[in-house]
Amino acid sequence: MRNSISALLLGLSLPLAQAGANDSAPGLDPVALLSQQCLTISLSLPELKDQDSEQLAATWERTTLGMHNVLDQVEFYRQQPLAAEGHQALLGCQLHLADEFAKLTGTAAFSQLLNALGDTSPSSALARRLQGVAPLAPMPEDDKVRLHLAEAGFRQALARQDYQLEISDQACQLPETNGEISPSIDKRMARYLLKQTDEQCRYQAWSAYQERHNTLAAMALTEIRALRQREARRLGYSDYASLSLARSYLKQPAVAMAFLTGLGDKPQPAPWNIARDLAASQSTKAEPVPLERELDSIGKVLGKLGIRTEWLQGNVIRFWHGPRLLGDLVWREGNAIRFSPLRIPVVGHQFAQGQLTAPAGVAGYSKKAALIRAIAECLELFAAGGKHYLLNRGGEESDLARLPSAWLTNWLLRELGDEPDERVQLATNYQRALHRFRAIEALLFYGSDGSNDRYLAPLLNPFDSRQPLPAAFAHQFTGLISEGPAYYDRLLTDSLATYLLKYSLLSPEATFAELAVNEQQRTLPERLSTLLGGDVSPMALVSRLIAGTDKQAVTVAR
């Protein structure tokens, strides 16, 4: 049954995607079909006796590839607008497959396979990745239920919009403020901050706004932190921050904190002032450029990396890297620009498929940068050169898993000569400072004492204002529970991508092959050593990123 499911998914994934892009396709309900297939999947390893490491690796791939393909399809359709029953069916599928995978990795046969692969066999890269998915001692069921309820409560508290904006100070009232009818308190507050000329009035309104759901959110966070700390101690870690970063590149919260505190970004406009500063900044207006023309321009530059593109019928773009077929990308028209994977490549088994959602015309730097980022994310996935699914689905180090696409995005922007205008740059700098502020807070929140150390107080206010920040402001983001202590990873990835763009010892083509293709399945430290030379251990790499210089800035073509 497993093999037939895998074959069916390989044949149907692109037609299903095209059907999903065309809501009028008659007689075909891809979500119902997918859900039915999903519930028939049952995972078990066959007899492993007398198999060498390569045979064991092949057995693992045959056993799990169909399940992974189904999960990718489920994730794709969960991003689409669906009826409630469709979402429920897909959720049921995910839960079923999660249970099946947990059962599989908890068996004696899985332990036997993991031990037989070893660390020195030709399949050692797969062995390392399987160590990463091997189950830790599961959280007790009661704790798991409490955690899910607390997380849901926190998200609901942040999402509430049924508040009224009432300005009691007459000097701060605007004619259209009190009693304004709008379903969203966020939009009403944004309009007030934009129109109010008095900074003290803006600060008072914004501060009160931050406290709107403090009690509900604080109660949920207290529960979440207690459960996470208990989980960490049960698994032998001093705190949840240490547990969360154990499989990251930086490894330790202290190293992550050293990175964040060493960035030294310039103070940015305060949150209650940023809207007016953005409105007053210079913005370049641009006419829309046809999407096909933009993609052709990107494709020509990608040729420098050995990547070739071709348009097929039905809005499909095919990518090649040298003689190797990478995969097909389906374009679907939509306002938001994003890349959605449909199928992960596995060398010798299947090529990649994905969907690009984008408007027919691309106007301005922000839209073009978003398009470039989507293509970079696509090629990060399509170019992966591993012979096993798990090797091509993200990196071993969770905090640098998106390094290839970050580097490629920066390289494409440089090669295409695009520069942000004043408004875009101001917004980017503000978001970076806010992200750093939140990343520091996340590390502190899940640390051993959960308190904001006094010596870090200046770093917890990255804004050019002496006004104190409300205590609740530090927790007003869902990433505190979804990403937790690893919230810093985007900053680390972007910093290293920029550093590599300047200091890589290899040519751009060789850098892309090392980062994205990785045909030899070398570890990230091994590849960074080749790309940068010298010491690339966590603390040494952080020191190099903070210094922003490298005496080994020599380009050597390979």
Automatic annotation (TrEMBL):
<dbReference type="InterPro" id="IPR001567">
    <property type="entry name" value="Pept_M3A_M3B_dom"/>
</dbReference>
<feature type="domain" description="Peptidase M3A/M3B catalytic">
    <location>
        <begin position="193"/>
        <end position="270"/>
    </location>
</feature>
<comment type="similarity">
    <text>Belongs to the peptidase M3 family.</text>
</comment>
<keyword id="KW-0862">Zinc</keyword>
<protein>
    <recommendedName>
        <fullName>Peptidase M3A/M3B catalytic domain-containing protein</fullName>
    </recommendedName>
</protein>
<keyword id="KW-0482">Metalloprotease</keyword>
<feature type="signal peptide">
    <location>
        <begin position="1"/>
        <end position="19"/>
    </location>
</feature>
<dbReference type="InterPro" id="IPR024077">
    <property type="entry name" value="Neurolysin/TOP_dom2"/>
</dbReference>
<keyword id="KW-0378">Hydrolase</keyword>
<keyword id="KW-0645">Protease</keyword>
<keyword id="KW-0732">Signal</keyword>
<keyword id="KW-0479">Metal-binding</keyword>
<dbReference type="Pfam" id="PF01432">
    <property type="entry name" value="Peptidase_M3"/>
</dbReference>
